[in-house]
Design a protein that fits this description.
Chain A is mainly beta. Chain A has one domain. Chain A has two helices and twelve strands. Chain A starts with a helix and ends with a strand. In chain B, 32% of the residues are buried. Classes of the chains: A mainly beta, B alpha+beta.
């Protein structure tokens, strides 16, 4: 609710929260083995330079791993047999306010938090099927129970 | 008694995949050795991780157990994820000559270093961020800093960096490089920062 208001205010002031790339919030910087994106029910192959959108899900196969850099400089990477859903991403590049929620449904994840978590200690959350992580920075690892 | 029995069955059932039947969260030191904080909330318990290699493991009854992880366990479980980490973003700072659109001599060298760093990375993207000094209110500084960032974007695009790989941001007066009193005209704060990812 609060971040929806922030985004509205940002647009009203003519400052797009992610100016230039409508809907693109991150890019793959590393993609090894089988790496896919699930977007609106479709499965798309992911390569270095592929853009991500909020609500995309990243899936790696048994030989796969992937590294993603977000526009607030958060860095996320996943190991093999992983499913990582980006559930919410909003970043105001002027105020650094935003929200970043992701869910590791399976596999392993490494996180280096960026400007969103630095600005607002409760703005970044990582979920697994059995726990919720509140992130106040900066580097940590998560393995999700199967 | 009945609960112990249920726990025993659960542990037998889960025994085959004991190592992955629980969440494992590990806090790492950053490159400078500093650590942040992660709060792990389970169905029942909670753990606060705030020291290097502090670890939280979920238990079958929904609790969260706080402990530590060894470096070899981190390597075994997270080696692939860690190996796939993107390169760390790098920051460059550029200044204009006062009164015109030219970069200072030093900044021209910095632009060369920026282009070299981009060439080292595969399909890099950048954010060009304008900053102002502490003269004037937020709205006018936000607009001014965004204008500066847009100007640098068009210069970089003219050098051959694809415009769709360049984001711009106006940070206004929120992040002075040199802390000053209100209203101080400080040229070192009137700058453009570039994050390369």
């Amino acid at each position: 609710m609060q971040s929806a208001r922030l985004i509205l205010i940002a647009f009203a002031c003519g400052i797009a929260p992610i100016a230039g790339w409508a809907g693109d919030i991150a890019q793959f910087r590393v993609a090894k083995g089988s790496v896919y994106l699930e977007r609106s029910g479709q499965r798309l192959p992911a390569h270095v330079g592929t853009h991500l959108q909020a609500t995309d899900t990243v899936v790696t196969g048994a030989d796969g791993s992937a590294g993603i850099a977000f526009v607030d400089n958060s860095l996320l990477s996943v190991g093999p047999n992983s499913v990582l859903a980006i559930e919410r991403y909003a970043f105001n590049s002027t105020t650094h306010e935003g929200a970043f929620e992701s869910s590791l449904r399976r596999g392993t994840l490494s996180v280096v938090s960026g400007k969103i978590a630095k600005q607002s200690p409760d703005a970044m959350k990582v979920k697994t099927p059995s726990s919720i992580l509140g992130v106040r920075g900066t580097e940590f690892l998560v393995r999700s129970s199967d | 008694m009945r609960r112990h029995y249920a726990a025993l069955i659960a542990s037998l059932v889960l025994g085959g995949c004991a190592t992955s039947s629980q969440d494992l969260i590990v806090l790492l030191p950053d490159k400078e050795g500093k650590v942040g904080t992660v709060v792990v909330q389970g169905q029942k318990g909670k753990a606060v991780l705030n020291t290097a290699y502090a670890a939280a493991r979920t238990t079958s009854d929904g609790g969260v157990q706080r402990g530590t992880a060894s470096q070899s366990e981190v390597k075994d479980v997270f080696g692939s994820a860690l190996a796939a980490q993107p390169s760390r973003p790098i920051s460059f700072i550029l200044y204009f000559e006062s009164g015109n659109d030219e970069f200072t001599e030093e900044s021209k060298q910095e632009v060369k270093r920026l282009l070299a760093e981009m060439a080292r990375r595969q399909a890099p993207d950048i954010t060009v961020i304008g900053h102002t000094d502490l003269v004037g209110p937020d709205p006018s500084n936000d607009a001014l800093s965004l204008q500066r960032a847009e100007r640098v974007k068009s210069i970089l695009a003219g050098m051959g960096i694809p415009a769709e790989r360049i984001l711009t941001a106006g940070r206004g007066r929120r992040e002075p490089l040199i802390p000053t009193a209100e209203g101080v005209s400080e040229p070192r704060n009137r700058r453009v920062e570039i994050n390369v990812r």
